[in-house]
Amino acid sequence: MSSTVRSSFALAATALTLAGGLAVAGPAHADARGTQHVAAQTSTLLPVSDSTSAAGVTKIRIKGTQVALRECPRTGCRVVTRVSHATLRAFCQTNRHTTKVAGNKWWTKVTLLHGSDPAWVSNHYVRGAAPKVPHVPGC
Fold first, then answer.
1. Of 22, 47, 56, 92, which has fewest CB within 10 angstroms of its CB?
2. Rg of the chain (C-alpha set)
3. 96 and 122 Cβ atoms separated by less than 8 Å
């Protein structure tokens, strides 16, 4: 089997696995008589809540207008973009090597919902964060 065909099968198997937890055949191996043996692999998707994506990433809501998303979790870092009342994907949060904003030293690493480079937002601007965002792991 050519490497192009193998790659196509691998891509299709991955897509099927991600789409619905289907059983996917693993690599095929031929013995001395030419008989192919296939190892079966099973993948199961876990249910997720409305605020969590399939990858376990939580969505957060920003309160306020023109809130700065920064390159690092400090007010001295460059502003990447500004958002107003936006919903973002949150990956993790930290209070180490940060600057306080209105008394809150916690910052969350985020991306835009449609995709972007990671950036940081002070938890002061995250709806429901007091001082940490629930269900968002530490960095």
1. 47
2. 22
3. no
